[in-house]
Design a protein that fits this description.
- The protein has 348 residues and is an alpha/beta fold.
- It folds into 3 domains: 164 residues, Rossmann fold, CATH 3.40.50.300; 70 residues, Obg-related GTPase Ych/YyaF, coiled-coil domain (DNA polymerase, domain 1, Orthogonal Bundle), CATH 1.10.150; 82 residues, Beta-grasp domain (Ubiquitin-like (UB roll)), CATH 3.10.20.
- Helix content is 40%, strand content 22%.
- It has 13 helices and 12 strands.
- The strands form 3 sheets. A 6-stranded mixed beta sheet has the order 2-4-1-5-6-7, with helices on both faces. A 3-stranded mixed beta sheet has the order 3-9-8, with helices on both faces. Strands 11-10-12 form a 3-stranded antiparallel beta sheet.
- Helix 4 runs antiparallel to helix 5.
- It is flat.
- It binds guanosine-5'-triphosphate (GTP) and magnesium ion.
- Guanosine-5'-triphosphate binds next to helix 1, strand 4 and helix 7.
Length: 348
Amino acid sequence: MIFNLFGYPKTGKTTLFNLLTGQKEAVDKFSSKGELHKAIVEVPDPRLTQLNELYHTIVKPAQVEYLDTGSLAYGEVKGSTFVDLLRRGDGMVHVVRGFEDPEIPHPAGKVDPKRDILSMEAELLLTDQISVETRLERLEKDLKKAKNKDGEEEKALMLKLKEHLEAGHPLREVVLEPHEENRIRGFEFLSRKPLIHMVNLGEGMESWEEGGNNRMVLCFYGKIEAELSEITEESQRREFLEAYGISHSVRDHFIRESYSLLNLRSFFTVGEDEVRAWTIHKGDSAYDAAGKIHTDLQKGFIRAEVIFWEDLIKVGGFKGAKEKALLRLEGKEYPVKDGDIVHIRSGL
Ligand SMILES: Nc1nc2c(ncn2[C@@H]2O[C@H](COP(=O)(O)OP(=O)(O)OP(=O)(O)O)[C@@H](O)[C@H]2O)c(=O)[nH]1
Ligand SMILES: [Mg+2]
């Protein structure tokens, strides 16, 4: 899972990156070297610790990759070299300036997070519009040379997308048939990706939240949390945050909300070698889950043995689960649920 942090200059992207990853990249008032920062972070999951009481082995939490892509100038998103990076990500995290600071002038003069949210959304839309138009030109040229059904179908779909974009609607709002979805997957349209606006507020400013169709707005207090990051003791940190009226750290909040926005679920594999969490999407099948673990397991898929994590703990392990007949045998199509322990039986 890859999350890209992006946004206009001096909004707190690197500050947020540090808070989410625990890194200590320099944050700067005046200049930015425009470096990319990348970190792979483990997703905390107390269920793993509990499961490991049965095995006493290595715990491997699910991982998320964060990329701090640097800043984008107003109006320049479409031509930017970051666009390809954004296309490769699973989720887009737009860091928005919400804090006042006379020493850090805002490129648009006034601090106005709602305006910047709309402005960035319009830029992402425009980027897709250009991709769609470029593709249409190409298709029309090809169709002039030789008519073909496939080309005609793609053209019709691109025209439909164009219409939506021209009406100012992001592509995440377009309902597509599965075959249409497959056709456009490779384009990685930005306005179709899950988008989280993270508004970086100053002390005492009022936070708000918006949620909806694959898009949400969350607030955080970058500077306050950065100042607290010296405190490593978790309970102390929480106490300080509460003293500022902040109920949860941005990291916990972000992980929870982004998992639900992207419809992510965790399943586990357990054994003497490791107790491990894997990330899948809601509705993914046992066959998909096998593919996450290893392509060979997927190729040779026979059956999945499944038990809910709490049930396994109750009966003290697989032996007890078999005795109590709690281990279910499921086929390829079984939709894996959050918290399932999955053991794939494979013929390879
Ligand atoms: N007052 C205030 N300053 C902040 C806050 N968040 C970040 N800053 C300051 O804003 C400056 C830029 O922060 P960064 O996290 O480097 O912002 P950035 O978006 O990564 O900046 P660029 O990569 O240069 O575009 C630093 O001096 C931060 O200390 C905040 O919530 N309040
Ligand atoms: Mg930065």
